[in-house]
Every structure is written in structure tokens, then in C-alpha cells.
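User: Hey, quick favor. My workstation is busy. Could you predict this chain's structure for me?
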Amino acid sequence: MDLDIKGLRVLVTAGANGIGLAIARAFVAEGAKVHICDVDTTALSALKTSDPALTQTVCDVSDRAAVKNLFAEATAALGGLDVLVNNAGIAGPTSKVDEMNPEDWDRCLDICLTGQFNCTRLAVPLLRQSRNASIVNISSAAGRLGFAMRSPYAAAKWGVIGFTKSLSIELGPDNIRVNAILPGLVAGDRQRRVLEAKAQQRGISYGEMEKTAFSYTSIKDYVTPQQLADQIVFMASPRGRTISGQAISICGDTQMLG
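Assistant: No problem, here it is.
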């Protein structure tokens, strides 16, 4: 299927690994121009060899000065902007709320929610000049379900949904569409670390924790980063021109998070 996005100018935050890298590569495969940022300098350096088409900036999205520099470098490399993918996020602490370090709460919201604001506020003036403008915010199944022991992460991801819906209304007159993707259990190191932490909290094995997690889904398999990337590329193409204000779950029909 030709998605007609050759030359599309895309910025993907946290694009050096995992979901972000899958998204960046999926856009490149369709002929888009992609700039990524990340805090992982080792991964960024490796991509200069493995993925030379990707231009890059070191950036922590919670740092507004760094984000300003990111947009200066991204627009210089891309010549403008058509798509912002707010992918950057961290798992945050696994802890009971009364035992949680407040600084861990702050850090989780600073990256997972405020980081999206920091990038979006600079992206919007650029996107107003695009003929195919869109923003995709990465939320989570935790953005529609409660998540014991992961309250800052869930709070941030619920916030992403509110941010997305508000932006879709606000930016609709500018023909900028805004959507959120809500992944479920995604294959990769971060999901493994989350399950390991929860298993330790409960005093059970990793295998038992994994089995419990899948007991709440209809499709008992991990979501792959490629599945998420495919959905995002489609929505950012002209074929997705009337998709806006949506919180789209890709989660194997997750009914609860345990």
C-alpha cells in the first residue's frame, strides 16, 4: 500500500531504542525524513552506522532548553515539520503510594506528560505550515485503567489522553490532527523490567507475574513495536486525514492491569 508520505518530515522523541526506533524506521521505510532525539548517547551513536538516514539530537524532553535546541536542529535537518510523535517516557517507580519517593513521582510526570507539552508547544507553529500535519502522543493501557503500584505512570498516561483530546479540538481549525496510541504489554526490555519489579513486590516468580498479566487480556500475546509503528504511520499519512481526537488501544483487549 502506497501511503503517499515520501518526504514527510517527522520528529520522533526517544527514537533510539524500542518503540521509538521502530516508529522512526517505519517512517523511513515509506520515504519520510525522520529526526530523532534520545538521552541514550550510546544508542544514538550506533544509529549513525546502522541507520544513517536518521538525523539526531541528544535531548531530555523534560529540559525545556534542551527541547528548544532539539527543535532548532530538527527543523534545520528536516526543513520544517509535518509530524510530531511524542514517544518519550519512563516506567516510573513500582511502589505503594505512601512508600514512594516524591522525586520519582515528579520525574515520571515531568517526562511522560510535561515532556509532551514541552515538545508540542514548539511543534504547533511549524505544523500550522504543513499540508498534512499531525501529532501522535504515546499513552498506555494505563491511560484508561487503574494500575496499582504504578500510580505516577498511570496518572501521566491518563493526562496524555486529556492533553490529546483538548489539542484535537484546539488545533482542528488549523487542520492539525491529534491522536493517542495506548499500547498494552509491549515486547521489549522495559516491559520485562516492569514485570520483574512487580514480581519482586509480590514475592512471586517472573513467569507467574507474566501469566497474571496475560490473564487480563483476550489476546494472550505481546504487542510488538512494529504493530504500533504501522498504526502511527497510517494515521500520519493522508489516508488518516480525518482521524483525530482518538485514543486508540493496541493492547490485545486488556481489561485490567494487575
